[in-house]
Amino acid sequence: MSAARVGVVTFPGTLDDQDAAKAVHLVGAQAVPLWHADHDLKGVDAVFLPGGFSYGDYLRCGAISRFAPLMDELIPAARAGLPVLGTCNGFQILCEAHLLPGALTRNASLHYVCRDQPLRVERNTTAWTSSFGEGQEIVLPIKHGEGRYVASADTIAELEAAGRVVVRYVGNPNGSTNDIAGITNEAGNVVGLMPHPEHAVEELVGAPSTDGRLFFSSILKKLVNA
Amino acid sequence: MARVIVDVMLKPEILDPQGQAIARALPRLGFGGVSEVRQGKRFEIELDGPADETALAEVRKMAETLLANTVIEDYSVRVEG
Hints:
Chain A: It is found in: Cytoplasm. The complex is a heterodimer. In chain A, 54% of the residues are buried. In chain A, the strands form two sheets. Chain A has a nine-stranded mixed beta sheet, sandwiched between helices. Chain A has helices at residues 17-26, 69-79, 89-96, 153-161, 213-225, and strands at 5-10, 30-35, 46-49, 84-87, 103-105, 113-121, 137-144, 148-150, 165-169, 180-184, 190-193. By secondary structure, chain A is an alpha/beta fold. Chain B is an alpha+beta fold. Chain B has one domain: Mth169, Chain: A. In chain B, 33% of the residues lie in helices and 31% in strands. Chain B is built from two helices and three strands, in the order E-H-E-H-E. Chain B has a three-stranded antiparallel beta sheet with strand order 2-1-3, with helices on one face. The longest helix of chain B is centred in the C-terminal third of the chain and has 15 residues, at 53-67. Chain B is elongated and about 45 Å long.
C-alpha cells in the first residue's frame, strides 16, 4: 500500500508546520500540506494542526482560525472519526472549534514559558499515543503564553472520570487545572496538547528528547493497521 | 445608525491574572481602597440601521459565535444612547 498520508495545516501565522511535516516524514508517513483557505482535505488519513500564532491570535487564540474554510471540512471529518492532533495553537483551535472541551487562557504567571517540560502520558489508547507505555514519563518542549487549561468543574470531573486526560505536566508551568497538558475527545481520535512533539524528534537540533516521535509513530501504526 | 456595546468578561470562577497584576500595581501608584480588578473586552458595533429587537438578536448571536468564548466568558449587550 502507499504511505499513510498525514495532512499538516498552515494558517496565516502558523510557525511549526515545517517541523510537523518533517516529523511525519521521519516516521515513514507522507506529509500533505493543507491550506487554511481551501475547502479541501486532499483525502488525507489524519491531520496535524501545528502551533504558532494563527491570525495573529486576534480576539482569542484560535478564535478566528476556527472559522477558516478548511475547518468547515475538518470539523465534520473529525466528528466522523478522522484522527486529528493539535499542538499548542492547534490545541487552542480544537477547543475554540468545540472538538475538545474547555479553553486555554493566559498563563497564571503572565509569563511566556519556554522550556523543556517533563510530562506523564496518562492514556495510551488514543490514536496518537498508542506507542507510549501507560504512565510513561517524557520530556517535550513547551513555548506558550496562553496555555492554562480551564473548563467548568463538571467538564473537568467528566474528563478525569472518563480517562480523557492524555498528558499531564510533571511540575505545572502555567496554572492548568489538575496539571492538564493534553486531552482527547470521547472517541480518542482527536487529541490536543500544549507541548510540542514535533520539536522533539531529532537529537541533532538540540531537542531534549526524541519522545515526540512516538506521537507520530502511534498514528502511523494506526493507519497502517487500519 | 446605532451603536451597540458588547462587554465580554471572564466568568467569575476563571482566574484573571491580568486583572490581578493591575490590582497589585495600583497601590504602588498610590491608589488605595481597591479590593479586586478584573479585565475584559469591549466591542463597539456600529449598525447600519436602528438597534431594534431583530438587530439586537443578531448582535447576541455575534457574541455567542465569535466575540465571546462562552466556555470561559460571559457577555452583555446594550445600546449606547
